[in-house]
Amino acid sequence: MDNTTSLTTHNSQLTLVECPRDAMQGWPHFIPTQQKIQYLNALLKVGFTTLDFGSFVSPKAIPQMADTKEVLAKLDLTETKLLAIVANTRGAEEAVMFDAVSYLGFPFSISPTFQIRNTNSSMEESVQRVEAIQELCIKNNKQLVLYLSMGFGNPYGDAYNAEILLHWADEMARKEIKILSLADTVGLATTEQVSFALETLIPQYPEVSIGVHLHSTPVAWKTKLDAALRAGCTRLDGALKGIGGCPMAQDELVGNMDSALMIPYLREKGFLKELNEDALQESLRIANEIFV
After folding, report:
1. pLDDT for 32-84, tens place per residue?
2. Which of 32, 84, 112, 207 has CA 20 to 30 A from 4's CA?
3. Cα–Cα distance measured from residue 230 to residue 6, given in angstroms and rounded to the nearest whole number
4. HSE-up of 178 (CA within 13 Å, CB side)?
């Protein structure tokens, strides 16, 4: 049996997460609410498993996401599940009130500097937030997606090695969080790092979905994606046109992995079910109008 066939069998339940929120949040000018609604409704028709559509965070911190509630009210819901990012308990309390939101995403940085920059909280405070948000999710029939931000290194000089990542993954799994996403927030990950982390964690925590949120230059995306697939990863994040990055991270953002490149590659390798090609092309058309 060749590698591709073996991988296809292992990845029969691939979760493809499209992240327009990540693409939009750092965009230099405000995207009109109606244009966001148009874009998200087009993406909802494509057939992605999950849409990371918005965030319940301070409008002062992320002005682009100030209209998330207004946008949510105008979405044409499909089988694609909605994920919203929250940075604290207040945001989580708001998000869980919406039936349309299935997942709450919390960015837990394994870099103390970035945790302060991104959520204005220390590591200790952030652990407490994770526990409170997990409790809210359980009570309100939501699922917490825990992003291990700066999961493959950081630009601040904070201590980093693979053991730190594995330690925090273990801590979160012990809190019975069922979805962990290893986030390459500023595009530092090597293929070796991706392989080692996933090959270590996936067998160790079979009850947890271990995904990757990889940022990448257009040159490096395929080798990183291949590393994740070969390690048995079944949860992949991307964003059309490769736009995105956390505006709290650094001045020069490394974009998301481009799902317009990922989709044909995953289809060619036999990982991906058929998507609505017309809706995908319409989404790309709108993305080309927004991100100029």
Report:
1. 999 999 999 999 999 999 999 999 999 998 999 999 999 999 999 999 999 99
2. 207
3. 9
4. 7
Q: What is the H or E stretch that residue 211 is in? A: strand 209-214
Mean pLDDT of 4-31: 76
Q: For residue 151, which of 188, 192, 103 has the smallest C-alpha distance? A: 188
Number of domains in the chain: 1
Asked if pLDDT for residue 10 goes beyond 90, the answer is: no
3-state secondary structure of 91: helix
Residues 6+ apart with CB under 8 A from 177: 130, 134, 144, 146, 208
- SS3 of the chain: helix, strand, coil, percent, to 5: 45, 20, 35
- Residue 107 CA: distances (Å) to CA of 39, 145, 149, 249: 24, 9, 6, 12
Tokens read off for 183: 């986030």
Q: Which of 291, 202, 251, 208 is nearest to 24 (CA)?
A: 291
β-bridge mates for residue 212, sequence order: 182, 236
- Tokens representing residue 95 in the block: 């998000």
Work out the burial of residue 210: count CB atoms within 10 Å of its CB; fewer than 13 is exposed, 13-18 middle, 19 or more buried.
buried
- pTM score: 0.92
pLDDT band at 247 (very low <50, low <70, confident <90, very high): low
User: What tokens does 64 get?
Assistant: 């682009």
